[in-house]
Amino acid sequence: MSAPPAAGWDVVICGAGPAGSAAALAALDRGPDLRVLLVDRATFPRDKCCGDGIAPHVLDVLGGLGVRGLVDGWTPLRRLDLSHGDQGVEGRLARPVWVVPREVFDARLLGRAVLAGADVTRHRVRRLRTTEDTVVLDDDITARVVIGADGAHSAVRDELGTAGTPRHGTHALALRGYAPTAAARAGRQVIRFGDRSQPSYAWAFDRGDGLSNVGYGELAAAPDGAAGLSRELLLSELERLLPGSTRDGTAWRAHHLPLSGWGWGAQQPDGAVLLAGDAAGLVNPMTGEGIFYAVATGALAGRAAANAVIAGRPQDAGARHRGAVRGLLQRHLRHTWSASRLIRVPRVVDAGIRAARRDQRVFDDLVELGLGDGLITPRLVAQLVRSLG
After folding, report:
1. Disulfide: which of 4, 245, 362, 368 matches 119 by Cβ 3.0-4.6 Å?
2. At what angle do helices 291-310 and 18-30 cross, to 10 degrees?
3. 28 close to 117: Cβ distance less than 8 angstroms
4. Cis amide bond preceding 45, omega within 30
């Protein structure tokens, strides 16, 4: 990473993962001459605890910014195997997904942001203050607009002191590792729902290179988001639900997930500081998926920041961004919140699996709801009621 000057930036983005890199790409797409700086405490490539699933919706957003080829060399998956107890469904995905280690995907995406004109520096943000026309990070880095894309434990969000920040909301805790792909699970994504705090499930996602991303996660009911959820418990649940999946596993890492709520907006105040991705508390409460939300809201933040700077009104960036995120995700977030409450009832989970097994369109609806920006469709409701009856 380079060591660019600290002062005079148009947009400074804290966090160079998918949300931050997408923000940089969108800002430079809107204003190629803008001075954009990405700051991150890590040196890339770096590992990140995640299921590594790249849904096609992620590539749609990035394709709109002229970015392609990020999953080249990795095998597309077209099958999803979903089960709970003795109920199961295996279906063909309407569009393929990819399982690409974040060490690879994030570095590729950051590289594209640099090619587009962003500067990058290694720095750990600890403090933030705003003046009449500038945002100052650590009394050193100044910008007209700052975007917080620095993850679940966002320093930018905490410095904002925003009411309703994700750390006070619902969390999940997940443990991930890499293990040899079992023959019976090759070429597919496998999800097994457990019987602990819902949503709870184990997964095995084939990377296509002989290894699978395997893991287990569940809702963390305690205020601190992790009480009682030890590494041993998470590993034992993974092995119980997917026997043999922990054998020869490596690179085990755990991660907090700030799950999305009924709506979104309180997390984003007016002004020249924006939040995106995990930092904004945007993680699908059904599945724990967050890369689509990160890339989509990162791109919206970058565009809002660029438009505000170009208009000479950086203080309008917060309102611009809040409106854009609500326009894209508000209805979807309400549907995923409702679905996440429904799946806390095992009988509803079983009914949903039966409905998906009976109707491919219902299967597709569930995939869109869990991986993209889908809704609880009338068809899904009708088939769910039928299954419950």
Report:
1. 4
2. 30
3. yes
4. yes
CA–CA distances in Å: residue 298 to residues 35, 46, 152, 272, 292: 17, 19, 14, 15, 10
Mean pLDDT of 166-172: 66
Instruction: Grade residue 6 by pLDDT with cuts at 50, 70 and 90.
Output: low
d(CA 143, CA 13): 9
- Residue 235 scores a pLDDT above 70: yes
Is residue 16 very low, low, confident or very high in pLDDT (cuts 50, 70, 90)? very high
- Picking from 204, 163, 166, 169, the residue whose alpha carbon sits closest to that of residue 187 is 204
| Secondary structure element (H or E) that encloses residue 10, with its range | strand 9-14
pLDDT, the chain, mean = 94
Token pair recorded at residue 18: 């998918």
Q: Which two tokens stand for residue 73?
A: 């060399």
Q: Are 75 and 189 a contacting pair, CB within 8 Å?
A: no
Question: What whole-number distance in Å separates Cα of residue 108 and Cα of residue 22?
Answer: 12
Residue 163 reports pLDDT greater than 70:
no
Helix (H) or strand (E) holding 378: helix 378-388
Longest dimension (CA), the chain: 65
Task: DSSP for 86-107, please give it.
Answer: TEEEEEEEEEEEEE--HHHHHH
Rounded CA separation 283/289 (Å): 6
The DSSP code sequence of 67-86 is ---TTTTS-EEEEEEEEETT
pLDDT for 198 equals 82
What is the share, in percent, of the chain residues with pLDDT greater than 90?
88
Residues 6+ apart with CB under 8 A from 47: 101, 102, 103, 251, 253
